[in-house]
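I hope you will forgive my troubling you with a question about protein structure. I should value your view on which stretches of the chain appear to form regular backbone elements. Here, with my thanks, is the record as I have it:
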Amino acid sequence: MVNPWLARFAGAPALVAPHMRDRFEASLTALAARFDTELAAQQDGGDDFWTELGPYASRRLRPYNVVNGILELPVRGVLLHGFPYQFLDWATGYEYIWKAFDRGLGDDAVKGIALIIDSPGGMVAGNFDLVDRMFAARGIKPVRAYASEYAYSAAYSIASAADSITLPRTGDVGSIGVVTTHLDVSKAYEEIGFKVTFIFAGKHKVDGNAYEPLPDDVKASIQADIDYLYGIFVDTVARNRGLDPNTVRATEANTFRADEALEAGLADFVGPLDNALADFAADLTNPAGDDTVSDQKATVTVASVKADHPDVATALINEGREAAQATAKTTTETAVATALTAERGRVAKLDGFARTYGGNANALKIIDGAKADGSKPEDVAMQLIESGASAAAGVVAGMEGDDAGATGARPAGLGGTPAAAQTPDGWSAEWKGSDKLQAEFPTEGAYVAFKKDEQRRKGGR
């Protein structure tokens, strides 16, 4: 069964952050599964927007919560047109947002409005009209937006209408762009033997259908629509945030974490939601009655320091840059020293292999290649065994059996003296009890494999 909420976005321009696709689809799936059940719980509805669903459903689907004189207006989940409700963390309708916002403006108990936002974005339809109405109401009451944690695309459009935007250190805002998709299933249908034939009137009646490749002129037409909507979005944010439209376009629909958002002019303050709401409540009780952050609780931001104290900002930036460079230098030097020590150890083990395998040309070729490509000694040991070089090394070791120095540097079994152990457990014990074996065979497994290979070759003679 097709999800009716997800289907609203099919082939239509959208104000969403594509990297939030999983949350977007999960929210609409949950909405489709639960919403009708919730709506059915309405009882004895009243005759206006706030009472027509009955007491229970109204509280659940059209929340209106005033705390410490602040209307906490949720803007959560996917943002929808033609959906006059707010449903958990999954979806919020533009009509609901305006109804709650407008009610708050006229409610004497409401001293300020907080837009509590956590959304991947939503529909184009209805968004810009809502934001225009909210912007037109600026100055009637203080309005602050809080990204908790994300305010992307359609949600950022709404946030920009507020007097200020605050987000936590881990928050993200932005994605000022418009997107749509075209699905071409013609190849798939051809492979399963289906063919769709349109019978229509009007040249553009079936433009953009999914059953044939998208023609260049149709793609250009769709792109023109996207560009037009993008222009509205850019101009809306520029107006609301007091930015040059070119500055907004320069974001290229990117998303910005807290520090980047301050730098780009897309946010004003950074701080936890609870603290920010407490500051808002305190400011609303300020006898001066203005909507500025009080001197006692002023939030210092990169932008405010640059504006008010440019010399201090420059000094702090230079100090931070120098500290970062010093830390990076120390870290780099430590990493280089560690790497050099490890490399010397690796090469020393490979040199030990070269001594063990004497003048065997094949073995020396393998070892020289390992030195160049950074192979691990344990991998090289196995490669030498598998190549047959070990048998040749045993012959060389036998020929040099009278050389006490050479014999002392060789593992038992390589020279003329056979190893006492004849089983894997015995070979393991030999390796564990011999510093010389451990120096020449980097792992117990490598030595055991070598002994197995030696035993197999002896048995085949």
Confidence is low (pLDDT under 50) at residues 289-298, 391-419. The chain has two domains: 4-299, 329-459.
